[in-house]
Every structure is written in C-alpha cells, then in structure tokens.
Design brief:
Elements lengths: L2 H29 L4 E3 L1 H5 L8 E8 L5 E2 L5 E7 L4 E7 L11 E8 L4 E9 L8 H9 L4 H21 L9
Parallel strand pairs: 1-2, 5-7
Antiparallel strand pairs: 2-4, 2-6, 3-4, 4-5, 6-7
Length: 173
C-alpha cells in the first residue's frame, strides 16, 4: 500500500471513529430525557421502570380524587378499566381535570406501587383523549365509543354534583 493510500485510510477510519463516538455520546445524553408511555396494565405487569421519568395515562377513576385541605397535595387513581394506578401529585391541577376524564401523568414510579407525579396533563375539550390513553384503552379491549360514553356520563354526574352544591371536594371542578 502506498503512503498516500495509507494516509487516506487512517483519515477515513478516524472520521468513522469520531462519528461513532459522537453518536454514542448523543444517545447516552438523550437516554435520560426519553419519557416512555405506560398504561396501568403495563405498569401492573412490571414493564415500567422504577424511579425513572415515565408517562402514564388513562381515565381518572370516579370517587378516587382526594385533596389535602391544608396543602396542594392530591391523590387519585388512573385506570384503563383493567388495572388501576395510584397517583400522588403536589401542585395545581389543570382546570380541565376531573373524574371520568382522560389524563396523562408524568412522574416516577415508586416501589410502593404509586406514581409520584411531577406533571398532570388533562384533555382540552370534551371529545379529546390523549392518543396514548386511547390506544391503551383499545388494547385493554374497549372501543372508543365505550370510553367516550363513560366520560360523558362522568361529566354529567360531575355537573349534577356541582349544581347541587353538595360541597364534594372530589367533583368541584
């Protein structure tokens, strides 16, 4: 091999090595920022990692919203109508958050079996459901009409409770 060819070979190998290192470092840095979506069924099956940022979603189970009157702490259950996931959240909930509606929560799954949420995302109109939640419910064996009907029924009950002025803290949104 001529010295000129040898030099070109080393330059090409060096560039390939540098590109490999750059791609490897980029993937390593992005690994911590990836939020994978899990449904309550997947979490109950043990597919979700513990103490790592994940997204979980489903419907807010009726009668499970519990607010601490002395702080902004809220506990509620997210369900896909097969399994349930307890969620602890400290902060202001979105205005559109209420029982029977679809939500996506971002947080860390704890070894005690609950999700410590950093963020709660609610739907933005009565017919919207996050795509991941809708797909998880379909995978659980529900048709979109089923959970839309359940959401409408829950919304009517929430409105009836609010108009009755029963003072229920779980349906005051």
């Amino acid at each position: 091999m001529t010295p000129k060819r040898k030099q070109k070979l080393f330059v090409i190998l060096g560039l390939v090595a540098l590109a490999s290192v750059a791609v490897g470092l980029t993937l390593y840095a992005l690994r911590a920022n990836i939020n994978l979506f899990f449904s309550p069924v997947q979490i109950a099956a043990g597919e979700a990692p513990f103490e790592r940022q994940i997204r979980a979603g489903g419907m807010v189970k009726e009668g499970t919203v519990s607010r601490n009157p002395d702080s902004l702490e809220v506990e509620f259950t997210v369900t896909d109508y097969v399994d349930d996931l307890r969620v602890h959240y400290s902060g202001i909930l979105p205005d559109l958050f209420r029982e029977g509606q679809g939500v996506v929560v971002v947080g860390q799954l704890q070894h005690d079996g609950y999700l410590m949420a950093d963020q709660v995302l609610a739907r933005h109109d009565e017919n919207y459901m996050p795509p991941e939640v809708a797909q998880a419910l379909v995978d659980a064996g529900y048709k979109p009409e089923d959970f839309q009907q359940k959401a409408e029924e829950a919304a009517k009950r929430a409105e009836a409770n609010a108009s009755n002025g029963d003072g229920a803290t779980s349906s005051s949104y």
